[in-house]
Amino acid sequence: KALRETCYLAHDGSRPSLAMRVDGLQDLRVVDVGDVEMYSGDAARSCADLEVAVEKVAATGAIPLILGGDHTVTWPDVTGVARGGDRWGRVSVIHFDAHADTGDIEFGSLIGHGQPMRRLIESGAARGDRFLQIGLRGYWPPPDILEWMAQQRMRSFEMTEIVSRGLEECLTEAFEIALDDCDGIFLSVDIDVCDPGHAPGTGTPEPGGLSARQLL
Prior knowledge:
With 216 residues, this protein is α/β, with parallel strands linked by helices. It has one domain: Ureohydrolase domain (Arginase, Chain A, 3-Layer(aba) Sandwich), CATH 3.40.800. The chain is built from 8 helices and 6 strands. Helix 2 runs parallel beside helix 3, helix 3 packs parallel to helix 4 and helix 6 crosses helix 7.
C-alpha cells in the first residue's frame, strides 16, 4: 500500500527516466498484476501464496518485478521463478544486502528475514556456487554460519573488499560467476545495503554501506 501511495505525482501512465531516456511504462511492456495478500502472523501461508503468484508470472515468460516486504519474501520469490520457468536449480542469485540472511532457526521458526537464502539453497531452488552477495558488513553472521556458507561455495563481496577493489570490479566478477551455467539471474535488493545516511528508514541499519548513487 505504501509503495502505491507514496508517489506525489499523478498516476498518468508515464514515468520517464531522465538518466536513461526510457519511459518504463510507455517504452517497455509492463503489466501490474496487483498485490498478493499477506497474512499477519502467518508467514508460511503468506510465503506459499506469494510463491504461487510469482510462479504464474514466470510461467508466461515475463520477468517478475516484486516490490515490498522484508527479505523473507526472497525465498518464495526465487522459488516461484525457478518453478514457473522450469529453472529449478538453474537460477543464479545476486543479493545486495548488509547481511547474509543465511540463518537457520530463529525464534523457533524456519521462516524469517534472516533466513531466506539458506532456505533457497537447502531446497535446491538456487545453487550455493551461483549465489553472490554484495555489501555484507557489520557483526553477523557468526563463525558457524560463515562455515556453512563456505561449504555451499557462496561468494560474498563484503564492503571491505568493495572499498579495496572498487564496486565495478566486484560486480564484474559477480556477474561472470552468475552468468556461467545458469538460465537466468534473480536480483535481490535489501535497502540496508545502503549506508543508513542514504536509507534511514531501514529496520536493520549498518554503517559503512553503499551510497544511493552506487546502488542505482
